[in-house]
């Protein structure tokens, strides 16, 4: 359930504050950034770290099994790769 919630919550700050479609606001090659963009990136990073740390703490406390932790880490990797791929290709739209 935590993974499903994080799939929805982790990208929200970046979508609201960090993605304006302009080249200056993309993660790669960024030259101009505002405080809102930085806040969006911070909240996205905070959420992403929390979505990995909470299951790790639960596995350490033996509340969940190691298999559940590995499955959650794989899901977090897929989510992160999806966000980075989306940002990379959306920042390259101007070149086509």
From TrEMBL:
It is a multi-pass membrane protein. Keywords: Membrane, Transmembrane, Transmembrane helix. It is found in: Membrane. Pfam families: Vps55. The keyword Acyltransferase does not apply. GO terms for cellular component: endosome; membrane. One of its GO terms (biological process) is late endosome to vacuole transport via multivesicular body sorting pathway. This is Vacuolar protein sorting 55. It comes from Pleodorina starrii.
């Amino acid at each position: 359930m935590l993974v499903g919630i994080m799939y929805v919550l982790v990208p929200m700050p970046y979508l609201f504050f960090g993605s304006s479609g302009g080249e200056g606001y993309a993660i790669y090659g960024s030259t101009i950034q505002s405080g809102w963009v930085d806040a969006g990136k911070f909240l996205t990073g905070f959420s992403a770290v929390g979505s990995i740390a909470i299951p790790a703490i639960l596995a350490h406390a033996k509340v969940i099994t190691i298999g559940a932790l590995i499955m959650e880490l794989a899901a977090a990797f897929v989510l992160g790769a999806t966000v980075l791929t989306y940002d990379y290709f959306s920042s390259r739209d101007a070149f086509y």
